[in-house]
What does this fold into?
Amino acid sequence: MSALIDLNMVTRVYEMGGEALYALKGLTLQIDKGAYVAIMGTSGSGKSTLMNIVGCLDRPTSGTYSLDDVDILSCSDDQLAEVRNAKIGFVFQQFNLLSSMSAIGNVMLPMVYAGVPAAERMERAVSVLQQVGLGERLYHRPNQLSGGQQQRVSIARALSNRPSILLADEPTGALDSHTAEDTMRLFNELVSRGITVIVVTHDQETANHARRIVRMKDGEIVDDALNV
It folds into this structure.
């Protein structure tokens, strides 16, 4: 059985001032379905570039990338957008919620772009908000919610199109330690339901909740071990 995520000898090169800057240097990484992986590294290690490639937001300069047996490098931009919508949910440090919309409105938004019928959008949004413990806050706007509650809305939004992969970029960076713990417990619950969770972080406490920790430095993987 092939890995859900399979990167082989991936490089990402940027041209800056006539010079080639290698953000990723021949990186090889496999992640199975249902895994819970933390990708760690300091600023400039390449972890954000790796997340953008895994999330189909960017393309490798060379190498191969297969996502759920789809050859990502052969996809058109429209096909990549379809893959993102169908398979990947994103969670960001700054939540990125629309202040003018309620929690349920924010959660329904990705489903609008995915063409989900209105009645089903409402049903799904209520369901995922209940799953993250916000069933009593459906019509609250972001400024009426705590930071932890806003992060839970962003997680519900990421789950609204029923992705198989959740990509979280510094998901606890804007949270206090207690709320961060709650968020990581929620990620564990999602993994137990079969969702693959990948957390990109520089924070060791956040990474310690994952079952596998991949450490990066200067565009390369320097350590890859189960967290036991």
Summary: The CA atoms of residues 16 and 22 lie 10 Å apart. Strands lie at 5-16, 19-31, 36-40, 62-67, 70-71, 88-92, 165-169, 196-201, 212-217, 220-226.
